Structures are given as C-alpha cells and as structure tokens.
Amino acid sequence: MQETMKRSGGCHCGKVRYEVTASLDQVMSCNCSMCLRKGTVLTFVGKDQFHLLSGEEGLTDYQFNKKHIHHLFCATCGVTSFARGTSPDGKEMVAVNVRCLDDIDLGSLTVTPVDGKSF
C-alpha cells in the first residue's frame, strides 16, 4: 500500500515542474485514443492537491472528443505530465502522468487497465 505523500514531477526539459500530494494505490492505464498513443499511466487528484511550480506560460492545451479534459503539454519538449479537467461529480481535478513523477519505480505499482475508449 502506497502512502499519501507529496511528490515532485514535470516534463522532460524541466520547464514544467509541479508538486502533487497523492497515493499511488490506484494508478491506471487508459486505452482511449490519446492515452494509448502516449503510454500514460495516471492517478487523479483534486485541484487543491496539485501545485504547478513553473512552466504555466510554456504549456500548450489540446482538447478532443467531448472537450472535458485539457491535455496540457510542454511546448518545448512535448511531454504531457498532467491534464486538468472536471470529475463526473463536477469537481475540478488533475490527472497526473505517474511516469513523469521523480524517482517512481513503475514496476512496483499495481496498474489497473481502464476502458476509456468506451467513454
């Protein structure tokens, strides 16, 4: 069981940096057209658990399908380290790409497949 703790992360070039308070007990691999192509592994947190430290001005926003999620990526290196959106209950949330967290051993986590293609 992963404890809830503050973790740091960001993009490849380092322009986008953030801190997130999260447990990594429930990480998921989505098969929607976007996640499948990028290979993201996600965890979701409330807006108040995510703090962007740098790089807001260098983010590019991409939306598709129902346009509920802002897929943000670094305009310099192209890495999508997080996305912003709204959960089904209307609360603002952040989807964090676990692969972009510092010092994470993805092999030690239990990754649950999610059928995002059907949403």
Automatic annotation (TrEMBL):
It comes from the Bacteria. Residues 7-119 form the CENP-V/GFA domain. Pfam families: GFA. GO terms for molecular function: metal ion binding; S-(hydroxymethyl)glutathione synthase activity. The keyword Kinase does not apply. Gene3D superfamilies: 2.170.150.70. Its EC number is 4.4.1.22. Coiled coil: none annotated. Keywords: Lyase, Metal-binding, Zinc. PANTHER family: CENP-V_GFA DOMAIN-CONTAINING PROTEIN, CENTROMERE PROTEIN V. Belongs to the Gfa family. This is Aldehyde-activating protein.
